[in-house]
TrEMBL record:
Superkingdom in the source lineage: Eukaryota
Family, as annotated: Belongs to the SEC6 family.
Entry GO CC: exocyst
Protein name as catalogued: Exocyst complex component Sec6
Sequence ranges of Basic and acidic residues compositional bias: 205-225
Residues covered by region (Disordered): 32-64, 205-227
Organism: Pangasianodon hypophthalmus
GO molecular function, one term: SNARE binding
InterPro entries reported in the protein's UniProt record: EXOC3/Sec6, EXOC3/Sec6_C
Organismal lineage: Eukaryota, Metazoa, Chordata, Craniata, Vertebrata
UniProt-listed GO biological process terms: exocyst localization; exocytosis
Comp. bias intervals (Polar residues): 41-56
């Protein structure tokens, strides 16, 4: 049993030794055939033994040196000439092989140089020689791999495979560098670019052939040294992108201290450089490549990609409104105009590049940043307007100007605001209609806060004018009229933007109307304060004898009537009505205070005076522009009641008063009778009894008197 086992081991050992010898013989035979093919000898020459094999002679070295020199002297045309046959099949024996693609032909060398020598060739840009040696080395590696079958590669072969990959990577980097540098010096790299194109085409052809052969044999796709088909072309495109980035990235960006329009100038230079670069590509670089290379398209798309990334970079640095404006003008108008992409010198090649449009997301971000900056800038501009008004007008007590035949008082505040908004709107409209709409909306939002800010500062500064100095009081009133007019003009002007942003304009109009109303009410309140002392002197014994207080009242009305005439409608109309109503209310209120009674039949004198003064007041308010015509009859109707000699006759003139002013109360009628000095107790007065009956009739038919005005109910 032991002997049998021993015999089996011997047979196994002998079989393994035999296989090793056969494999060694095959490898040696293959190497000899390769050498024979290089020297022109027959491939079936008997191999020399290790004992009898001679070292290379001087003659062999001289022959190889001459061959290399003759190879280096070959021209580009000889290297890339066509050959009649092409065999891309893989052989187990190293042999002379040629490959043709388009106009490029390469001949694989029988024996490669050393890795160091090939690396030096790559370093010195001897691309064709380096590439042929790499192909030869690759062929050698493939033969050795096939000889091994499915067994693992020995260390020496593994190192050779590693060297091959390193050489391919080195060649790839060199090609990338040459293509990258061609953006700045294409003429210097002319011959090299031709070789680059030939190498890429040849490599792609080989990879495709290997892939097809693998599919026919049913083998799995093996990753190549450059990542499979298309890898070399991708490297070429990446190199162009890098070259374009380096070329365009050299354009200097000045600081704000050097140039306040630095972004605008920078983008203008960028546009010119893009045109210059693409013109050079069209006129020079395009001629160095075969038609299968999308040269112009790749350079154009690389420029476009750089522009998009560069605008993103500038967006992060920009803080000034003019710079955002320059970016938008460049991106929306100049970039696609004849200044850059549509330049006549780039046609017709550029017309085919319809994909060169900046992303909507990028443009949206720039527009938003512009509008946000615009809003902040406008806030600052409006604050500056308020400060300027404070320093140049209020503190210096400058009288407001008049416009339109010297009628309307006006402030320049509104003109400045309108000019700012108009400028922003027009500038944006030149760039993009959508941008104009966005900008106007932002302006309206910013302007919405302006009325209250203005009112706060104006109230602080104008309060000091309301003193004993009459001129200061007049100036205070003129300021109010001027700002009522100014903000009325502003509201009308902003209405022109309602179509673009109705919601924002409506909010602004509400704020402006509020300010105008408050300014008008402040003016009316000051009028009330000024006439209060003179109203108190009416319907007294002194009033019956003199007209001093009434004349002062008339003077104040005339003064404020002048303010009303300096005011634009509709605020002027509202102000005139307010003054009219307040004076009538104050005048009648004094009569109802029971502070004087016309004793000794002075009622006819009082009635005549009321009638006379009422006529004068009516004329003043008509000239002022009041539309409260329903107040005109009140004084006359009361004076008729007062002038009646007998109280029983009052009921004959009472009806018009009660019908026109149905809110008059019994107490108020009693006050009128007291002023007349009625001789009856009020409860038994025929006038009161008639009044009670009239009120009952009116109350029963309220629906028929819905048009009647209320007045007496407003008197406390």
């Amino acid at each position: 049993m032991a002997e049998s086992t021993s015999a089996g081991e011997k047979n196994s050992s002998g079989s393994g030794t035999l296989k090793t010898l056969i494999r060694s013989f095959s490898l040696r035979k293959r190497r000899e055939n390769e050498v024979a093919a290089a020297d022109g000898t027959a491939s079936n020459t008997k191999p020399a033994s290790s004992d009898t094999q001679k070292s290379p002679t001087a003659e062999d070295g001289f022959r190889r040196t001459n061959w290399r020199r003759s190879f280096k002297r070959q021209s580009i045309q000889e290297i890339f000439k066509s050959v009649p046959e092409h065999d891309a099949t893989t052989s187990t024996v190293m042999e002379k092989e040629t490959t043709k693609d388009c106009d490029f032909t390469y001949t694989i060398l029988p024996t490669p140089l050393s890795v160091m020598e090939i690396s030096n060739l790559i370093e010195t840009a001897a691309l064709k020689e380096a590439y042929l040696n790499i192909l030869s080395l690759q062929k050698q590696v493939q033969c050795e791999q096939e000889a091994l079958g499915g067994e693992a590669s020995p260390v020496k072969l593994a190192n050779k495979e590693k060297d091959l990959n390193l050489l391919y990577n080195s060649l790839r980097d060199k090609l990338s560098k040459i293509v990258c540098q061609s953006c700045t010096q294409p003429s210097c790299n002319k011959e090299l670019l031709v070789q680059v194109a030939g190498i890429i085409q040849d490599k792609e052809k080989r990879e495709k052939d290997e892939e097809k052969m693998g599919e026919r044999k049913g083998e799995e796709k093996r990753e190549g040294d450059m990542g499979g088909v298309g890898g070399w072309r991708d490297v070429w495109k990446t190199a162009i992108q890098q070259g374009v980035k380096e070329t365009l990235g050299k354009i200097h960006l000045n600081s704000y201290e050097q140039n306040v329009s630095c972004i605008g100038v920078h983008l203008e230079l960028l546009g010119k450089k893009i045109v210059e670069l693409l013109e050079m590509v069209k006129e020079e670089i395009l001629n160095f490549y075969p038609p299968s290379f999308p040269v112009f398209e790749t350079y154009a798309s690389s420029c476009h990609e750089f522009v998009g990334e560069h605008l993103k970079e500038l967006l992060g640095k920009t803080t000034e409104l003019k710079d955002y404006n320059a970016m938008l003008d460049f991106a929306i108008n100049r970039y696609h105009s004849e200044m850059i992409l549509s330049s006549p010198s780039l046609q017709p090649e550029m017309k085919e590049q319809k994909f060169l449009t900046l992303s909507g997301d990028l443009l949206g971000k720039i527009k938003k940043a512009y509008c946000d900056c615009l809003q902040d800038t406008l806030h600052g501009s409006l604050d500056n307007l308020i400060n300027a008004e404070q320093e140049e007008v209020w503190k210096k007590k400058v009288t407001p100007k008049r416009i339109k035949d010297e009628i309307f008082l006006i402030s320049e505040v509104y003109t400045h605001v309108c000019e700012i908004i108009r400028k922003y709107s027009e500038n944006c409209a030149k760039i993009d209609k959508n941008l104009e709409r966005m900008a106007v909306c932002k302006c309206m939002e910013a302007l919405k806060h302006f009325p209250k800010r203005f009112e706060e500062e104006f109230s602080k500064q104008s309060r000091s004018l309301l003193g004993s100095d009459l001129l200061d009081c007049c100036l205070w009133a003129e300021y109010h009229v001027a700002y009522i007019n100014s903000f009325s003009f502003l509201k009308e002007h902003m209405e022109g933007y309602r179509e673009k942003c109705p919601g924002q304009v409506e909010e602004l109009v509400t704020e402006v109307d509020g300010l105008i109303d408050r300014l008008r009410q402040a003016l009316l309140e000051q009028f009330r304060v000024e006439i209060e002392p003179y109203l108190g002197g009416l319907m007294t014994k002194n009033w019956l004898n003199t007209d001093t207080d009434f004349n002062e009242l008339v003077n104040r009305i005339e003064t404020y009537s002048g303010y009303s005439k300096s005011m634009r409608r509709p605020p002027a109309q509202s102000f005139a009505n307010d003054v009219h109503y307040h004076v009538v209310k104050g005048y009648i209120s004094e009569l109802l205070r029971n502070k004087y009674s016309c004793k000794g039949k002075k009622n006819d004198i009082a009635a005549a005076k009321i009638n006379e003064q009422w006529t004068e007041l009516k004329q003043l308010f008509c000239e002022m522009g009041s539309t409260l015509d329903w107040l005109h009859s009140l004084g006359y109707q009361i004076s008729k009641i007062i002038e009646q000699e007998h109280e029983k006759a009052i009921k004959n003139v009472l009806t018009p008063l009660v019908e026109n002013y149905p809110d008059i109360s019994k107490k108020q009628l009693s006050a009128i009778l007291y002023f007349r000095d009625s001789g009856f107790k009020f409860e038994r007065s025929p006038a009161i009894q008639c009044f009670t009956e009239l009120k009952r009739k009116i109350d029963n038919s309220k629906t028929e008197n819905t048009g009647a005005h209320t007045f007496f109910s407003d008197i406390k």
